[in-house]
Amino acid sequence: MLSNRRGITLVEILLFSSISIGLSFWLVPWLSKPSRIQQKMQATLEQQKALRATDIFVNDIKQTLPGQLTFDPAGQSLTLEIAGESPLQVRYIYQASPGPQDGLYRIANGSSTVLLSGLVTSASSAPLFRYDSELRILTLDVLLKMVSGPPLRVVRRVALAN
Amino acid sequence: MKRAKELGFTALETVLAVAILSIVGLVISEVFTRTNRMAENSRQSERAVALGDMVLEQYNAYASQRYDLLPSYNSTKVRPRDFFRSDDDFGYGGLSITTFAEPDLENSLTQVTVKVSWGGGLFPPSVSFTKIYVQRMNGDAL
User: Fold this and answer.
1) How would residue B76 be classed by pLDDT, with cut points 50, 70 and 90?
2) How far apart are CA B47 and CA B43, in angstroms?
3) With left for phi above 0 and alpha for psi between -120 and 50, is residue B121 left, alpha or beta?
4) CB-CB contact of A136 with B61 (8 Å)
5) How many CB atoms lie within 10 A of CB A62?
6) A116 at the B interface (CB within 8 A)?
7) For residue A61, what is the nearest residue in chain B, using CA coordinates?
8) Closest residue of chain A to B93, computed from CA coordinates
9) Cα–Cα dist A162/A140, whole Å
10) Taking Cα atoms as reference points, which of B135, B67, B77 lies closest to residue B107?
């Protein structure tokens, strides 16, 4: 005759623990999937934004008058003259001061516009602007800080007109 | 006669519950997997378009200086560092570049096709661009 049994046996505890652990290992990757998907979509949006922000730089370079492009030796700024009714001088400069002031600035007609802010690249590291004199190609290479995830690298290459 | 109170679940109820939960779980996991794949494809497409733009700029430079040599720059599934002859992939690792320049000597123009692909398999996803360069009288390209 079976007596009234209270409590849980060791075997039941072991069984319950092993099933719980197995289920946890299986569930945990799925729990993090929504945030990983969200991060991927955020990275795509950030890249789109950065590329659109540098379109004005590409357009300026394409309209630069021949021989009117000058660099500073550190590659942190460049000056160019754009063709038009009257040539317009445009300067691109990287402002490395900490806080919300840092970024890549476009200065023209006495006003400055920040194209990209939150750059990881500093004045002491790789230059923002590089020029291939053989092919006459100008390269803009920046690293952008992201809210989450690794920095986003944005590279634009523009062939100078003859 | 009153039926005795029944506590717990019958075997049939348990099997049905597990089956329904499994189906729901499978559907949810399929949704997650597809969304993840779509997000990845979208990200890679954006990168491929940006890289394709850079490749075409390179061809702009080639065409303005070495128009006749455009077919010599044809490449098949090369890495960005190999195409641009640089130290790194400019942040476009995982993408491969295929280019083909087809001259039309009769009309003095050359059609350049650029394809940027990613992933593996027999038919990897890709984006393609085409640009036509017209030869000027002095041998350069427009």
Assistant:
1) very high
2) 6
3) left
4) yes
5) 15
6) no
7) B57
8) A153
9) 20
10) B135
Q: Which residues contact A59 (CB under 8 A, 6 or more apart)?
A: none
Q: Do A156 and B65 touch (CB under 8 A)?
A: no
CA distance A136 to chain B (A): 7
Partner-chain contact A137 B61, CB within 8 Å: yes
How far is A63 from chain B, CA to nearest CA, in Å? 14
Q: Which two tokens stand for residue B49?
A: 């378009």
Whether the CB of B41 is below 8 Å from some CB of chain A: the reply is no
Cα–Cα distance for residue pair B38/B43, rounded to 1 Å: 9
Q: DSSP per residue over chain B, as a string?
A: -PPPP--S--HHHHHHHHHHHHHHHHHHHHHHHHHHHHHHHHHHHHHHHHHHHHHHHHHHHHHHH-GGGGGGG-EEEE-HHHHHT-SS-TT-TTEEEEEEEEEEGGGTEEEEEEEEEES-SSS--EEEEEEEEEB-TTS-B-
Q: Give me A79's structure tokens.
A: 């000056």
Question: Considering CB atoms only, which of B32, B42, B58 is closest to A44?
Answer: B42
Kindly state the tokens that stand for B126.
């890709």
Q: Which pTM was predicted?
A: 0.80
- Here the tokens at position B51 are 């890289």
* Contact pairs from chain A to chain B, CB under 8 Å: 63
- What local confidence, expressed as pLDDT, does residue A18 receive? 93
Distance CA A49, CA A55 (A): 10
**Stretch A78-89: mean pLDDT, rounded?**
84
Closest C-alpha to B48, from B90, B7, B3, B10: B90
Q: Which of B56, B28, B24 lies closest to B127 in space, CA to CA?
A: B56
Judge contact between A139 and A112, C-beta under 8 A. Answer: no
ipTM score of complex: 0.76
First to last CA, chain B: 100
State which amino acid sits at residue B77.
Answer: K
For residue B57, the model assigns a pLDDT of 93
